[in-house]
Write a structure and sequence with these properties.
heterodimer; A: about 240 residues; alpha/beta; 9 strands; about 15% strand; globular; B: about 550 residues; mainly alpha; 23 helices
């Protein structure tokens, strides 16, 4: 509960291993809170949740070992370079040595940051910072990856890159993805199951194409607007000028 | 919107920002504040002064008729620097030029920004001036029996001088914001400068507090005529002399010894100074404050390879903990603001040691028995209390998201905080040792006394450092030094540090008397500080590790 606002209420949800689940919902619906509870960062006031076979209330550290989290906003150390930051995250996860450095080099190369890898992060654009965070989330090869708005700061090319990285990891390594996003196009392309969270409950769940068909919409964005009621009354759009 | 409307809107926004802590009742509370200041200036202060000064009798009259202009110059210098530097330091603590884009994209000129921000600052900074100004005027008014007209004239001169000083502070602040605001390091540089400029006020203030006689003598020399504060002080003196009831002999005495410039020269200099500041500020507005003036090259800082010390720690402490520790050291020492804070701690502690040795208490403490006692105690107190603020406060976590990253790893918080604490303990070694060594050298302490001073200062600094980290972990303020969490943490850290340092001193004194061993007493004396700090740091770590309720 945040003041009089309820952050999540009656959420009941099962995500299959190896799937790519996308949680959609309006601002303040409780998407980020859900991710924080499932990743062991916050305690729920009631109810239970099991992640990778571990109870989030009783086995927080086991949950954290098995998962990776990409937070909503970049929380990087401005005075570290990308390599130093990734070494730091690796050390917190007890990873080190040649293997860690090989992974860091590979990930930074894939994400197009190798030429800037020794620059201090304070000089990075928000998109570049987001890429570093993506790398830090994947560094320890988690079984389940929580991504909170993974592409909100990325340009289209980087967005496609992250989408393909998710698809490849899911296919090749059976990694499960749990993504919160506002980008319906991204969700449609990268998720095999979509859930729409509205007023604390999961009102719709299923494959994107099924949801579109179910509500008789043109695409996922249209379906989303019909479910959460965000359609715009065009006659009112210019009323402020009068 | 007319041109007037633009600066007016900026002034209004600036006022709202500066009084945001008063919230919705800002107008009523501000008026009450003005009332309180008027009560202070018109009723409380005159009463206190007349009660205090009447007790000094003839000694005070002798002082007035011989040296008051010198004291006036000595007081005006730190007051002037205070009004000039402190608002500048406060504004540099939070360098943000994001809103300038909105202003300039709306066709606002730089001079509108200057004028608007200046007028917006005036109501708040003006209150500060209104509190300080009577402190300068009343001793004269009382001593020389200055007429009401004279007092009004003096206050007018002070207001004029204060307004031009606030304007100068605003011009410097705007120029610095424009210069560093666009840089990715701007915020860090600004925070470093906000600490770096404080000694400009602190040195003359300390001189006035502890070496008033020598300072007044120094301010009586020709060189002091170069300070604008001297012109203002002399104009005030002239007004007081000519509108008061000082005997003619005393007037001649003062003129001959102190007042090297004629009243007209002082007034012309003061007016010229004021006019030049305003005209110069407006004229330079569009060229000096070249915010967004087109493409430019940005120098990007790079991380170099680890030095030998960092490599040593990495090897010594293992790959994982060593890496987190080295990261913490790099993160702390690469921030210019932290370097500035540590330098400030050095400066203040050495200054305090000098004050103790050569200030008014220099006589009693000058002997070889008390000097080794008082030096570490004073330096421990100064460096200890500052350590809580320098190593605690902002910087434990830069943002909440950084905390999430650490918390999302198993045992991440414990590892991180332990590494943070150890890294700060390492940085605290030169922080405590260097000033102790300097003081030991300056005060000619023996090697063993210097060594025990170093040890005592370090242990007290450690205790306070742990208090600072623990309090910040209990109530994270992230990187915002303008948040209420930061204010609360700073106050709580200082209060706890002060109490534990005093407890340490008492324990030390008891140990010294009973055991007769000074070095042992000092080390024993740091135990309360050390213990309380450790307990608070552990509590903070546990609190941070605890998952909050959603």
């Amino acid at each position: 509960m945040f003041g009089s606002i309820q952050a999540v209420k009656d959420l009941s949800l099962t995500v299959m291993e190896g799937s790519r689940f996308g949680l959609l919902g309006p601002n303040g619906a409780g998407k980020t809170t859900t991710v924080r509870i499932l990743s062991g960062l916050l305690r729920q006031s009631s109810g239970t949740a099991t992640v990778c076979g571990f109870d989030v209330s009783k086995n927080r550290n086991r949950v954290k070992e098995a998962t990776g989290l990409l937070p909503e906003s970049p929380g990087l150390y401005s005075k570290l370079s990308a390599v130093e930051f990734l070494e730091f995250v690796g050390a917190l996860r007890r990873k080190g040595g040649e293997e860690l450095h090989r992974r860091i080099d590979s990930l930074l190369g894939i994400l197009g940051l190798e030429s800037r890898q020794n620059d201090l992060l304070e000089s990075y654009s928000s998109g570049m910072k987001q890429k570093v965070l993506v790398a830090s989330t994947l560094l320890h090869e988690p079984r389940l990856v929580f991504l909170d708005e993974p592409t909100s700061r990325l340009d289209p090319a980087a967005g496609v890159l992250v989408r393909d990285l998710i698809l490849a990891l899911a296919e090749e390594t059976n990694t499960t993805f749990f993504m919160c996003t506002h980008m319906t196009r991204f969700a449609e392309d990268s998720c095999d199951i979509i859930g729409i969270l509205n007023e604390g409950s999961l009102t719709t769940i299923g494959p994107p194409s099924e949801i579109v068909q179910q509500v008789g919409a043109k695409n996922l964005e249209d379906a989303y607007l019909r479910v959460v009621g965000g359609e715009v009354d065009r006659s009112k759009l210019l009323s402020w000028r009068k | 919107m007319s041109l007037r409307g633009r600066w007016w809107a900026i002034a209004k926004a600036e006022f709202l920002v500066r009084t945001s802590r008063l919230h919705r009742a800002r107008w009523i509370l501000y008026l009450l504040l003005v009332g309180a200041v008027l009560l202070w200036a018109l009723a409380i202060l005159p009463l206190v002064f007349s009660l205090l000064l009447s007790r000094f009798g003839d000694a005070f009259w002798l002082l007035v008729s011989t040296s008051l202009p010198g004291f006036m110059r000595s007081i005006m210098l730190p007051v002037w620097l205070f009004v000039l530097i402190i608002p500048l330091s406060n504004s540099l603590d939070n360098v943000k030029t994001d809103q300038w884009e909105i202003l300039f994209s709306s066709g606002v000129q730089t001079r509108d920004v200057l004028l608007g921000s200046f007028l917006g600052k005036l109501p708040v900074t003006g209150l500060l001036v209104a509190v300080l100004a009577p402190l300068v005027v009343y001793p004269f008014a009382y001593a020389y029996g200055v007429s009401v007209l004279g007092q009004v004239l003096m206050i007018t001169v002070l207001i004029l001088f204060s307004v031009s000083t606030i304007w100068l502070s605003n011009v410097l602040s705007t120029a610095l914001h424009a210069k560093i605001g666009e840089s990715p390091r701007g915020d860090d540089i600004g925070k470093a400068l906000s600490w770096g400029v404080v000694p400009i006020v602190a040195v003359p203030a300390f001189c006035v507090m502890y070496w008033m006689g020598s300072t007044a003598q120094m301010m009586g020399t020709e060189a002091s005529v170069l300070f604008p504060s001297t012109w203002c002080a002399d104009v005030l003196t002239w007004v007081a002399v000519y509108t008061g009831n000082l005997p003619a002999s005393s007037m001649m005495n003062l003129e001959a010894y102190w007042l090297s410039l004629s009243p007209m020269a002082d007034i012309v200099l003061l007016l010229l100074f004021t006019v030049l500041l305003f005209v110069g500020g407006f004229r330079a507005a569009d060229s000096v404050f070249a915010y967004g003036a087109g493409p430019r090259f940005k120098k990007i800082a790079q991380a170099g390879p680890d030095n030998i010390v960092l490599k040593f720690f990495r090897r010594l402490l293992g790959q994982n903990f060593g890496t987190v520790l080295v990261t913490s050291i790099k993160d702390y020492t690469r921030k210019l603001q932290n370097v500035a804070k540590i330098a400030y701690g050095f400066f203040l502690s050495v200054l305090m040691a000098l004050v103790m040795a050569f200030g008014p208490l220099g006589g009693p403490v000058g002997n070889r028995v008390w000097l080794p006692v008082i030096t570490p105690i004073i330096m421990g107190m100064m460096l200890g209390m500052l350590a809580g603020v320098i190593f605690g406060g902002v910087g434990l976590f830069d943002s909440r998201n950084q905390l999430w990253i650490v918390k999302s790893t198993p045992s991440g918080v414990r590892t991180f905080i332990t590494a943070r604490v150890v890294s700060y303990m390492l940085i605290a070694i030169p922080y405590a040792f260097v000033p102790s060594l300097i003081a030991g050298g300056l005060l000619n302490l023996s090697l063993s006394d210097t060594f025990s001073a170093m040890l005592y200062v370090y242990t007290v600094a450690l205790g306070c450092l742990w208090v600072g980290i623990g309090i910040t972990a209990l109530n994270p303020s992230y990187d915002s030094s303008s948040s209420s969490a930061f204010t609360v943490n700073t106050v709580v850290t200082i209060v706890i540090s002060m109490i534990t340092i005093i407890a340490s001193m008492l324990l030390g004194a008891v140990a010294a008397i009973r055991e007769g061993a000074f070095q042992l007493a000092l080390v024993l004396g740091s135990v309360p500080c050390f213990t309380v700090g450790l307990v608070i740091a552990v509590l903070g770590t546990m609190r941070l590790n605890y998952s909050e309720l959603a």
